[in-house]
Write a structure and sequence with these properties.
Elements lengths: L1 E4 L14 H9 L3 E5 L10 H6 L3 E3 L2 H7 L2 E3 L6 H4 L7 E4 L7 H10 L2 E4 L14 H18 L21 E5 L3 H12 L3 E6 L2 H10 L4 E5 L2 H10 L2 E4 L25 E4 L20 E4 L2 E4 L9 H22 L1 H7 L1 H4 L2 E4 L2 E2 L2 H7 L6 H5 L2
Parallel strand pairs: 1-2, 1-4, 2-3, 4-5, 5-6, 7-8, 7-10, 8-9, 10-11, 11-13
Antiparallel strand pairs: 6-14, 12-13, 14-15
Helix pairs in contact: 6-7, 10-11
């Protein structure tokens, strides 16, 4: 199979889908890898490093798309890339089809086979291709809080660390999943008072086993949430909110409970999701204020740590790429029900329920699409 890796074109996106070590693994199994020129520079990988592992360097994204059977990416397909897709081509990336109606239109029209990283599951019901970026996003979100609480960056000059003789800052984290626990690891290591809220008692129990005593683990109900809002310096959202839900965990009216010096960091970046007032921002313009509360909602936090993120993402996605390349996409999907969970598009059919419900489109199941 010919696997194409184009350069990411989203502003401030410095990751690349595969590092040179990953290329070596693909080539050693008899497949061909095409990489757009300079695609890896943002993550610190040169074209020569890729060549040394057997990749061919291609001059343009258009040519990569034209020649590749499988497009291996990080971010969604952008409008300027729509024309490059063709019928039967495999697109393997973070698609987020529910958030991008225009992209969904194009993928249906082009009759591609789209498999979304974010929807692939494992035997434990977790999301193995979200996990590595969730961990980096959680840690990166806390580092962003450290930065934007500084007076020189528009904050109130609070150092998020325990200092003798003064009040210890309080960090509230919504969600005890991968990003929430990762954020808590850093926040607690700095000596802060950390509270994690979750409705899953088992997740709280697991978090207790690995986090220090200065992390409080609370069941997420209205009273506990409101208590935390009143006392917290940093509110971090680390849960994904179902796209079709119209309600919110933290409504705009609840911002009045928060201290004016506080900061909201939305790691999940669900626009109008768990936190009603959150909307996606960029590394160029990362913050905004609503009702006196600063919001940080950068939707690609891991890109700031591009080399670490690329290596971690490649380690997680590569086994699936090899499975698709070795077996062929149809057989790989039929054999692996967990990979099949990520199938979003199949020859002009939408196969992801979440997108169908949010965008009010007809959809079928992956099993119906594959005839199994």
């Amino acid at each position: 199979m010919i696997i194409g890796i184009p350069k990411e074109i989203k502003p401030n996106e410095y990751r690349v889908a595969c590092d040179p070590n990953g290329v070596k693994e693909i080539v050693s199994r008899g497949h061909e890898v095409l990489i757009e020129k300079n695609a890896g520079l943002g993550s610190g990988f040169t074209d020569d490093e890729y060549r040394e592992q057997g990749a061919s360097i291609i001059g343009s994204a258009k040519e990569v798309f034209e020649k590749a059977d499988l497009i291996y990416k990080v971010k969604e397909i952008f409008p300027e890339e729509f024309e490059y897709m063709r019928e039967g081509q495999i697109i393997f990336t973070y698609i987020h089809s529910n958030a991008y109606r225009e992209q969904t239109d194009a993928m249906i029209k082009k009759k591609i086979i789209g498999i979304a990283y974010e929807d692939v599951k494992d035997k434990e019901g977790e999301f193995p291709l979200l996990r590595p970026m969730s961990i980096i996003a959680g840690k990166g979100g806390f580092l962003a809080a450290l930065n934007f609480m500084q007076k020189i960056h528009g904050g109130n000059g609070i150092l998020l660390s325990r200092i003798d003789g003064i009040r210890t800052p309080e960090i509230t984290i919504i969600g005890a999943g991968n990003s929430g626990v990762a954020a808590a690891e850093l926040a607690s290591a700095f000596g802060n008072k950390v509270t994690i809220l979750d409705i899953d008692i088992k997740k709280l129990e697991e978090a207790r086993k690995i986090l220090p005593p200065n992390v409080e683990l609370l069941y997420s109900n209205r009273n506990n949430l409101e208590m935390c809002l009143r006392r917290t310096d940093i509110l971090m959202n680390c849960i994904l909110w179902p796209k079709w839900r119209k309600d919110h965990l933290v409504e705009r009216s609840m911002l009045s409970m928060m201290k004016k010096s506080s900061l909201i960091v939305d790691v999940s970046c669900d626009e109008g999701g768990a936190i009603e007032t959150c909307k996606s921002t960029s590394h160029d313009d990362p913050t905004y204020k609503i009702d006196g509360i600063t919001h940080y909602c950068v939707d690609n936090i891991p890109s700031a740590f591009s080399q670490t993120a690329t290596k971690s993402l490649c380690n997680s996605t590569l086994p699936y790429v090899l499975k698709i390349a070795n077996k062929g996409v149809e057989q790989a999907l039929k054999d692996d029900k967990y990979l099949r969970r990520g199938l979003s598009f199949y020859y002009g059919k939408l196969t992801l329920e979440e997108t169908g419900r949010k965008q009010e489109r007809p959809y079928i199941t992956p099993e119906e699409a594959l005839g199994i």
